[in-house]
Automatic annotation (TrEMBL):
The keyword Secreted does not apply. The lineage of its organism: Bacteria, Pseudomonadati, Pseudomonadota, Alphaproteobacteria, Sphingomonadales. This is MarR family transcriptional regulator. It comes from the Bacteria. It comes from Qipengyuania benthica. Residues 36-84 form the HTH marR-type domain.
Amino acid sequence: MTTRKITLSEAETDFIERMGINAEADGQARITGRIWALLMVVARDLTSAEIADTLMVSRGSVSINLRLLESLKIIERRSKPGKRETYFGMCEHPYTLLIKQFIERFAGYRRMIEAAASRVNRPEGRENVVNLAKFYELQERGHRYMLEELEKSES
């Protein structure tokens, strides 16, 4: 089998590994962060074989984590005329899409918690639940502000 390993600089390799550690700290698989970072630094579409060979991981692991990154709308599948392989590359505005997902998630949490707060009978317990709803409201507002700033920079 032919290897399709991409040559990376020491700085690129270091960044890729650090992104893997960050992903792991956030509860994701290390390979998720490494794939994302590789696609960032290479700045071109890659096949799953190129990703696996470059990062020295199994193609199965790459496939699972590509699907995760795709579901987060950070990367997307692409094809090239005359090529049978599927390519993966960064979405055009992945960070605005990611923030929109956070906003939706925080708004959903807030609505659920607000509904629960009205049913909590103990005043101290209700106050705790209301404070949690406030936390998610602030998260939602903060992310809306970040989204506005990113959209300004993208236009």
